[in-house]
Amino acid sequence: MGVSVETVERTDLRRPLVDPTDSERKRPEEDVGLESVLTESSLPYRRRMYLGACIEMKLLFRLALPAIFVYLVNSGMNISARIFAGHIGSQELAAASLGTSCFFLVYGLMLGMGSAVETLCGQAYGAQRYDMLGIYLQRATIVLALVGVPMTLLYTFSYPILLLLGEPKAVSYMGSIYIAGLIPQIFAYAVNFTAQKFLQAQSVVIPSAYISGAALLLQILLSWITITVMGFGLMGIACVLTISWWVMVVAQTLYITCNQRFRHTWTGLSSKSFQGLWSFFKLSAGSAVMICLEMWYSQILVLLAGLLEDPALSLDCLSICMSVSSLSFMVSVGFNAAASIRTSNELGAGNSKSALFSTWTATSVSFVISIAEALALMAARDYIGYIFTSDSDVAKAVSELCPLLAATVILNGIQPVLSGVAVGCGWQTFVAYVNIGCYYFVGIPVGCVLGFTFNLQAKGIWTGMIGGTLMQTLILLYVTYRTDWDKEVEKARKRLDMWDDKKDTLQN
Fold first, then answer.
1. Which of 26, 133, 345, 387 has the fewest beta carbons under 10 Å from its own?
2. pLDDT of residue 80
């Protein structure tokens, strides 16, 4: 039986959860959708690919665009804080950059552990085991909050730790003040990231975009008042940033708990969320290691810049380039989220061909966008630095780093999407090993040799970072190409059954 474009466009769009009673629930493969198109033998191959692309592109952009906005706003909140700090003074910019880099330790940890929720909730939603999602959310929040306690103690002693790392005394002191104002964010991360993954697994991303946008506007307004009217300096900037994160947390929590849309995935607080905490911790540990090793990589390079000649200049130019790179990276992370959602949902639903098709569609689209970003970056290379600072020396150093920055942007168009596929499939532990080898045995050592031994300074450090990222990207491309997606479907089914067979099950 042939499949028309009109039929395809009306179906397979991951529908928002409506009342899925036993009589109303349908398996995704019963719909005429992406899997049906890709397996329709009566259609020519090119026609199947065209119809599949029509479906997948709609799904992809419907998920990716709001996710991109959310991640851009989250990154933009840190960047706007740096901008405000930079307009106080160059030393304040260096301190805020150093403090932000240090705080990425806990940011990466919380975001990584939250990725376990993304895998489990995404596959459970695809398999229509809706009542499991709320327990996963609560259990993850508890585990992340417990992990946040020792991290709070660690950041309390940030000043002596920065001195032990060899950072300049003045910058370390100001950076520790900035970090002190960020400490309450640790527990905001614990709630925010798990709530985001809970929503994303159900393809609900637009409300988070509205909430994040409102929080960013609030932060900019309060930061302006804090700096220009009240004159609070770095501590004021940090406290405003923390308040903005907690505004997002409260808004998302109210949206989930008070919205009838989630009455089948959020059934209220449950004592079952305290069961299997250690098992969930072990599961999320692989996710945390994968994300942390990746996020800490660039931040370690910023810390190394503090050991170069003229550390203030090196820190300033590298932090500005990192800020620009992170904006581009957030676009790819939006596709990362979309790829993870699509892959986990399709694997949970048993649609192996759809999972494969979604993977390569998201990767291709993100790569094309990254090429356009790199070209725009090179065209504006002489002006980018002045957005962050009025120091001409810093702006010139940023301009000289732009070719390396453009190469990084292109690689970032591929690698994050493949990492999203890894999260959707549950490959976090494997990717963690890849990250260790590529980043910490190749990227950082090469960067140190080029930066210090060959005296290439910031250029050398950045070149080493590119080398590690390139190696990781090639490995992930190869592994994804060689994946047996039918086996991945079976693994997803066993993973859900394993959690369901234990007393973690929610079905009465």
1. 26
2. 81
Share of the chain above pLDDT 90, in %: 6
In this predicted structure, what is the pLDDT of residue 372?
Answer: 93
**C-beta of residue 130 within 8 angstroms of C-beta of residue 351:** no
Going from the C-alpha of 200 to that of each of 115, 138, 345, the distances in angstroms are: 11, 16, 11
Buried b (16+ CB within 10 A) or exposed e, 240-272: bbbbbbbbbbebbeebbeeeeebebbbeeeeee
Q: How big is the CA angle at 372 (ends 369 and 374), to the nearest 5 degrees? A: 110
Nearest Cα residue to 412 out of 446, 369, 445: 369
At which residue do the structure tokens 């979309």 appear?
Answer: 338
Tokens standing for 191? 């709630």
Cβ distance 192 to 178 under 8 Å? no
Give exposure, 189-213, as e/b (b: 16+ Cβ within 10 Å): bbbbbbbbbbbbbbbbbbbbbebbe
Written as six digits, the tokens of 472 are 């990781």
CA–CA dist 44, 204 (Å, integer): 34
Alpha helices in 413-443 (DSSP H): 415-425, 428-435
- pTM for the full predicted model: 0.70
The least confident of 21-35, 188-202, 383-397 is: 21-35
3-state SS string for 197-239: HHHHHCCCCHHHHHHHHHHHHHHHHHHHHHHHHCCCHHHHHHH
For residues 399, 178, 443, 150, the Cα torsion angle rounded to the nearest 10 degrees is -170
The predicted structure's pLDDT at residue 375: 93
Q: Which residue has the higher pLDDT, 11 or 495?
A: 495
